[in-house]
Amino acid sequence: MKARTKFIIGAGIIIATLTWLGWLGATQSKTYYHTLTELSAMQGPELQQRMRVSGYVEPGSIQRLSNQVNFVLTEQGKTLPVSYVGTDPLPDTFYEKDAQALVQGRLQPDGRFVAEQVEAKCASKYVAAPGQAQAGSPAGGGTQSPAAVAH
Length: 151
Hints:
Largest sheet: 5 strands, mixed, barrel
Number of domains: 2
CATH class of the largest domain: Mainly Beta
Distance between the termini: 75 Å
Shape: elongated
Radius of gyration: 24 Å
Strand order of the largest sheet: 2-4-5-7-6
């Protein structure tokens, strides 16, 4: 066999292997976003996929165990028990009243969601403090700096 033929076969094997690894990595890293309402309507293989789900953390539902944190997400009357098994600490805003969370992981056959990642969504909006006008507005004259407070 000629050297050129061996090179072409070798290059073809390398390209095919890299293509296969790229496709495999892309399909395994897909994460679909679903609401709690959508989860209740899903069935079959859809439930086995990696997904992201958001909702409000039910007050009083957070339980710390030795290697996981359990809590319940709620949205429009639907609930989802979640077990966080990640290594990163939970965000500080996760423990506030009316905290929203975005969890990423997989739904288990028993209906529990096992989260590998938890993000707290900031439900607050930053607005000017009551009684103070924003800089640049006609009432503020542009000389005061706006005071921002979280609500």
